[in-house]
């Protein structure tokens, strides 16, 4: 009976997958928003807390990179230099005006998918090259396992770390449904370990102009790992010759059956 049930399930997935074999998985665009902070007394990889809440916000590699919601881990790389500012950000002018800034938000742009979306965020790094002889520094900022902000003790499931809930920012809350609205630690999913930040939200409609400002703004004061400090290349003092930020993301559409359908379609295409 179990074998028969399993076969029926596979056949069902394959048949439904065949009906949609030409349909790709939903996607979102991922960009990085950095708040320039010329007076910041820190080094890349620190957490600025409330110190990072002044200065202009610039977008880097705006809407250039796509996250496919197919359940796989995908790496995103952002060039933190003047060359990578696609356009002025929320309050920015498209010019690098400081040598340091903070990760203010991830910009998540809809492709028109109007149902629930679940994302996981892991392994944030800043690879930067100080001017002069020293080689580039590959700074691991966080894998959300408690090492960076909790004395090595794993965070409890659901703890809000680094990122606020999706509707926190008033600039994009109107783009989102009231529920789901979650950002917190998930100790069951990770790229190289078992921890990451899980994010759940839903756009209010299928407009491809809807986006989420997933901010790292510090509130309450006890929220760990807020406003991670990043190097900016090409700043006024020439402190850094280059700077890139990498982060890994994974996403699935809800209902999760859509992912199964996509997998069934992929299997059929391979035959």
Characteristics:
globular
Give the count of helical stretches: 2
Write the H/E string, N to C. Answer: HEEEEEEEEEEEH
The structural domain count equals 1
Unreliable stretches: 1-21, 264-271
Largest sheet: 6 strands, antiparallel
Q: How many angstroms separate the termini?
A: 27 Å
- The secondary-structure class comes to mainly beta
Structure overview:
This protein has helices at 2-19, 257-270; strands at 27-36, 57-68, 74-79, 100-110, 116-130, 137-142, 182-186, 196-202, 211-215, 229-231, 240-253. With 271 residues, the protein is mostly beta strands. The protein has one domain. A hairpin with a 6-residue loop joins strand 5 (116-130) and strand 6. Helix 1 crosses helix 2. Residues 1-21 and 264-271 have low confidence and may be disordered.
Question: What is the strand and helix layout of this fold?
Answer:
Blueprint: H1 2-19, E1 27-36, E2 57-68, E3 74-79, E4 100-110, E5 116-130, E6 137-142, E7 182-186, E8 196-202, E9 211-215, E10 229-231, E11 240-253, H2 257-270
Antiparallel strand pairs: 1-2, 1-4, 3-11, 4-9, 4-10, 5-6, 5-8, 5-11, 7-8
Helix pairs in contact: 1-2
